[in-house]
Each structure stands twice: as structure tokens, then as C-alpha cells.
Amino acid sequence: MPTPLPTSGKTIHNLATRLRRLPASCGPVRLIAVDGHAGSGKSTFAGRLARELGDAPVLRLDDIASHDELFEWTGRLLAQVIEPLARGESAFYAPYDWRARHFGPPLAVPPAPVIVVEGVGAGRRALRPHLAQLLWMDLPHEESWTRGRSRDGEEQREFWDGWVRAELRHFTEDPSRPFADLLVRQCGKGYEVVPGPAGTIGPDQSITHGDGPSAMC
Going by fewer Cβ within 10 Å, which terminus of the chain is more open, N or C? Predict the structure, then answer.
């Protein structure tokens, strides 16, 4: 895992407050997607956001994907997770074990007020109608992949070569960033959250609080 950067508590707190106020998007649930390139810091940020949301459930798409279906898991996610939540029911999905290369016993996801969906492709076309908000970790792909390769070590080199090709193909065919409501950027003192291509933050909806006058990275 990458070494976590210091986090601006006010940024995360204000973002969580704003997300709680959104209307439900999937039955009684506000689905919040955290998308971005592999290695961009999605898991760390999503975990911190979920804690600020009162320990909201986090659905990690690494548990949905598999070696055989790096990105071809949309139908399974819709059937196992999205459709039950839309009915106000608990969802059950079988998490994938990347070492053993098989799916494990089912895990439950209750229809909590807010659920964070984290992973590459969380903002894909088929999921966007069910999302209350799409957040994009705004780190260039080359820098993200360099971080990811460093994190996973030489033994995962072959996997990363295949992953990069698959990710490039996915985002070429089904980009997420142009539809992001908010962009999340890691800064020296935490995170900066700014309006994304598809969203705006009004003057009464400030999210980022920094130590300096500009609150910029």
C-alpha cells in the first residue's frame, strides 16, 4: 500500500456533509463512485471518506473484477449489487481472491444511506444512472501506474503490463473523467476537491479548506 498523505480533515468532513445531503440514487441509497487510474489513491481516499460518512460500506471493484474479467463485470455488478439495492434489499456478491484465482463466499452489502463504490471503472456508462455523485482521482495515468507498479513489486510486472493495456482500452471506449462531478487531488497537506467537468460547486458549497490562502496543491 502507498504511504498515506496527510489529510485535511475539513476537506473530507465538508465533502461528506455535502454527499449526505444528496438525494438517493439507487433505491434508498446514495451511491458515491470513486474512480481513477490504477495507483491513483482511490482506496485510501475512499476509506477515509467512508469513515467520515459514519463508516459507510465500501464496495471495492477489485472484489468484483477477476483475471478473466478485468473490466467485463458490468452485468454481474448490476445483478448482484445494483438491482437488489434499488429494491431496498441487501446485496450479496462473491469477492474475487486474486491469489487463489476464484470467487469466495458471498458478502452482504446492506442498503445503507450512503455506499462508496471504489475502483477503476466505477464511473462507467452503465453505472452512472445509479450514482448520486462521481468523484475522479485526478492523477495522470503515467504517474498513477508508476505508483501502482512500485507498490506491487516486480512479481506483478507481467500483470501490470496486461492491466495497462486493458485500462487504456476501457477508458478509450468508456471514459469516466468527463462525467465526474468532482475532482480529487492529493496535495502536500491533504486533498483538494474541486468541481469536475460535469459538476459545479456554488459559493455556499465550499468543500476545500487549506492552510494557505489559495487552498491549492
Answer: N
